[in-house]
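Example S7 (structure tokens).
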């Protein structure tokens, strides 16, 4: 008999995404623990659960989304329960349970923006990203491009209704967006990625050079510490002279 997954299993089931290549995998590091403790310390004793949402935000900022492994850890840090954390993660549409693309587009689909042209923007953005709009469902509102660079989500009001259509890309809000503006935004994103890659390559090169230099310095220091080889001891000439001659047996 096949088992039906319970609600918590369904919520915390991992959903793979091509966007994962642009974000680090969730890992509990001393820095992450220190940040969580700092956030928990902002609340009075006994109210540690209040830090769940700030920690969720931090985790999403660092890792792109709140993975199934992150939820029990957040619960532990806030003296809460995994189901409480999962409840918060699923309640807010801005919290991702799936890794977004490097550049995440939220297109406002609420009436003011829809009437201002937002509705036509969605299929245009989909074609530019190479994603299928049919993949955006209520259960899975985010669609990620196969290369992981882009992701798209139709969202409710972005609170800038008088200047629609509004589109948010990562943390930047763009208003009165047109197709031309989408082209410019995407071109700027590609430029940003190229600059980041160039910077990362330069940093990698610099680190390799520093490692090589450190290795050479260590080898030089080792050579300098080695004691000079002692010269081969010469037999003292006197000793040679003093050596008793072998007695020549007298001829009888
Ligand atoms: S309707 Fe789009 S921002 Fe409010």
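Recovered sequence:
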């Amino acid at each position: 008999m096949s088992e039906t997954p319970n609600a918590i299993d369904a919520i915390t089931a991992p959903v793979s995404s091509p966007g994962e290549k642009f974000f680090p995998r969730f890992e509990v590091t001393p820095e992450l623990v220190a940040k969580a403790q700092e956030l928990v310390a902002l609340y009075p004793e006994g109210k540690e659960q209040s830090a769940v949402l700030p920690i969720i935000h931090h985790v999403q900022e660092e890792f792109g989304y709140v993975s199934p492994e992150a939820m029990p850890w957040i619960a532990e840090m806030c003296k809460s329960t995994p189901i409480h954390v999962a409840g918060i993660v699923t309640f807010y549409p801005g919290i991702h349970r799936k890794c977004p693309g490097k550049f995440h587009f939220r297109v406002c689909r609420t009436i003011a923006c829809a009437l201002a042209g937002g509705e036509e923007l969605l299929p245009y953005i989909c074609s530019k990203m190479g994603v299928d709009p049919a993949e955006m469902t209520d259960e899975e509102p985010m669609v990620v491009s196969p290369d992981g660079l882009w992701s798209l989500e139709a969202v409710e009001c972005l609170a800038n209704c008088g200047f629609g259509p509004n589109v948010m890309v990562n943390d930047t809000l763009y208003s009165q967006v047109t197709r031309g503006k989408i082209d410019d935004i995407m071109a700027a994103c590609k430029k940003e990625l190229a600059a980041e890659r160039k910077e990362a390559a330069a940093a990698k090169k610099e680190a390799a050079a520093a490692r090589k230099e450190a290795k050479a310095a260590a080898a030089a220091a080792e050579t300098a510490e080695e004691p000079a080889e002692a010269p081969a001891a010469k037999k003292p000439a006197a000793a040679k002279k003093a050596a008793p001659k072998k007695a020549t047996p007298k001829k009888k």
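Notes on this example. Residues 237-252 have pLDDT under 50 and may be disordered.
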